[in-house]
Amino acid sequence: MMSDSPLDDNAILQLNATGLRACVIAMSIASSGGKVSLSEVARQVGVSRQALHQGNPAAVEFIAWLRNDWTPPPEQQSDSQKLSDKVAVLEAKVKAERKKRIQAEQALTMSRHHLQLAVENLEAEIANKPKTGSLARARASRRPMTN
Description:
Blueprint: H1 9-14, H2 17-31, H3 38-45, H4 49-55, H5 57-68, H6 79-128, H7 134-142
Helix pairs in contact: 2-3, 2-5
């Protein structure tokens, strides 16, 4: 994945013709899937590597940035690189599944806790509820009425 280019608007405006050609050639090499090298860019521009390096530091920095961020196209990747990429994708999926499982376990624990609180509240209501059965009515009917 490429990060932001080291060439801002000001640096581009300060490039001379050789530096601009070097940047364009470097971009064409990178966009075709090749690995950018300062020697190859200098050869295609028609100057020596040292001359390109001395006269165009912004272009050299841009070429170095392209080289550092270069990754081979998928068809050029080695088997070990392909396997490493697959492992990285699978590890990300496992991590996501673990996160989902942990969230589900937390939700289950919270639900159990709320259920336990509801049971305790019901038991407390039952224990504190006044007697309303037939025995309580019979006792109430035997009491003398007072005005």
